[in-house]
Every structure is written in C-alpha cells, then in structure tokens.
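User: Hey, quick favor. My workstation is busy. Could you predict this chain's structure for me?
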Amino acid sequence: MGWSSWYGFTQNINEELIRDMADGMVSSGLAAAGYEHIWIDDGFALPRDNATKKIAVDNATFPSGLRALSDYIHDKDLKFGVYTSKGPLTCLGGQATQPDRPGSCGYEEIDADTYANDWQVDQVKDDGCGQCPLDVGTPFTTMRDALNKTGRPIFYAIHSDGRPWETGSDSNGSVANSWRTGGDLYSADYHMWLDR
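Assistant: No problem, here it is.
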C-alpha cells in the first residue's frame, strides 16, 4: 500500500512535494502500518537526451534528480516508484498543453536500465496511453522482459485491458505484478462513498 502523486496533484508535482509526502508517511505512522510505496506519476519526464536516449528529468521541478530523491525515500525505509507509458508519449505528453513527455515505446531496455540502475526504483507503473507500433503480442511484455533483465526486483504495475478472465489477456498475472481494471479516479468518485 502507499501513495501516488496522480491522485490529488496530477502533473503538478515537484521534488519538495514528494519528499514531504515521504516524510508524512513516516511521521503519521502510515509507514509503520504498512504503507510503504511512494509513486511519482506522469509529469516528471522531459524529452530524451539526444546522445544517451535516456529520459530527461525536469530540473526545474526535480533539481536534485531522481536518484537523490530515490535515496531520500529509501533512507526512510520506503519504496520508490516511477511512471511510464507503453506508447511513444505518456498520457500527459500527448496533450497540446504539455511538453512531449516520452513513453517507453522502443526504449524499454534503456528505460528499464535507467529505472533499475540510475534511479534505483522499486516499482514501475506502465500506463496504457498510446500504442507502440513496435509491439508484437501483448503490449507490456517488452517492458516486463527489460525490467527482469536488469536483475533488480521491480514491482511492475500496468494499465492493461483489465480482463484477466479472457484468454490472451495481459492482466492475468503472467505479464505484471498488478493491473488496473478501470480508469482514473476523480474527486467526484469519492462522493459515492461519502454520500451513502
């Protein structure tokens, strides 16, 4: 269990906010109760470095970089997670008001190596935005294989077809550790529980 930046902040994230959330998880007792995951969702990535092809991190919002943030979170005995998407662009990256935020399409091995070795992440959320024209078979297997190849144990969560009961589904446990079965939640969704 843990916290994702998307619910409450969407793309309005920065290093200070994520550090504050990690601090709050510990000081509130949530970490001791089993809430150990801190996930940074869409909004931190900028276009790839031309030479290395690695995802660039927005230095204005994450001035210390994601490795320093990962170390900070790990020092609190919490787990650090990041976001990507199966398409050429992330969900935000495909919007006219956003910079081209790169997805992992065609860069799965580079991204998996960055996550595992450069940033020391413990979990990756792979969103369902866009279609990678390079995919054959289920769209998330390429990233799963790239993450496994790094040798670092990384929890892999996908926004898949959400139909684990169907033959050939990518959400039947053979591709990822967990998967979503619906879309994003919004503040109005919480009222269904409050207005009972």
